[in-house]
Amino acid sequence: MPTLPLTSSTTLNPVNCWKCKHFATSWDPKMPYSCKLLGFKSQVLPSIQVMNSDGRPCFGFDPKPVNAAKT
Questions:
Q1: Main-chain phi, psi angles of 63, to 5 degrees
Q2: Looking at the domain assignment, is residue 24 inside a domain?
Q3: pLDDT at 28
Q4: CB-based contact 6:44 (threshold 8 Å)
Q5: How many domains does the chain have?
Q6: Does any domain span residue 22?
Q7: How high is the pLDDT of residue 5?
Q8: Alpha-carbon span 3 to 6, nearest angstrom
Q9: Distance between CA 52 and CA 34 in Å, rounded?
Q10: Could you read off the pLDDT of 5-21 as tens digits, one per residue?
Q11: Which three-class secondary structure state does DSSP give residue 36?
Q12: How far apart are CA 10 and CA 22, in angstroms?
């Protein structure tokens, strides 16, 4: 039985951390990404870490607010 790759696929992992309000970058070069909601840092995007650990897409995705266009 094949295993899941450590890379993101939009069909397997539709969550985009860069568009989530809980996503942050870390000062730690060994763990550059973090999820403020789930409280962890990772070498890969948190949504990929969640998918690899749990086998399901991240349940904590919350889109960042859209900035109103300046007039």
A1: -60, 145
A2: yes
A3: 94
A4: yes
A5: 1
A6: yes
A7: 47
A8: 9
A9: 15
A10: 444 444 556 789 999 99
A11: coil
A12: 19
CB 26, CB 44: distance < 8 Å? no
Range of the domain at 42: 17-54
Render pLDDT for 17-56 as a digit per residue (tens, 0 to 9): 999 999 999 999 999 999 999 999 999 999 999 999 999 9
Which DSSP string do the residues of 38-64 spell out, in sequence order? TTEEESS-HHHHHHHHHSS--S---BP
Query: Where do we find the tokens 């996503």?
Result: 23
Residue 3 lies in a domain: no
- Name the 3-class secondary structure at 19: helix
Whether 59 is covered by a domain: the verdict is no
Please tell me the predicted confidence (pLDDT) of residue 66: 84
Q: What are phi and psi of 17, to 5 degrees?
A: -55, -35
